[in-house]
Specification:
By secondary structure, the chain is of the alpha+beta class. It contains 2 helices and 3 strands, in the order αββαβ. It is globular and about 35 Å long.
Length: 91
């Protein structure tokens, strides 16, 4: 079963907002990607205001929550990433 990306983005955002780091979540994106064997998975990017404010255990819990939430709606595995926020003070 596969769910449309906008619905998945909404599910992921709601899950992220309910997490211990919910107040630090700025946004999420989700895109289908194929691995080297041709299998499709979901690349999920969770943008936080500051990665330093979210402890590793809190991020792990958020990843597990997203994996569970996506699993209820879609068969594709969600690979969750937290990109570094842009440097606001260029060097």
């Amino acid at each position: 079963m596969q769910t449309d990306l906008e619905t998945l983005r909404h599910v992921i955002m709601e899950t992220a907002k309910k997490s211990p780091v919910g107040d630090k979540v700025e946004g999420v994106s989700v895109e289908p990607v194929q691995d080297t064997e041709g299998d499709e998975f979901l690349r999920v990017t969770v943008r936080l205001k500051s990665i330093d404010d979210a402890s590793r255990p809190a991020r792990v819990k958020l990843i597990e929550s997203i994996e569970h939430a996506v699993g209820e709606h879609d068969d594709r595995y969600p690979s969750v990433r937290f990109p570094d926020p842009p440097d606001v003070h260029p060097r």
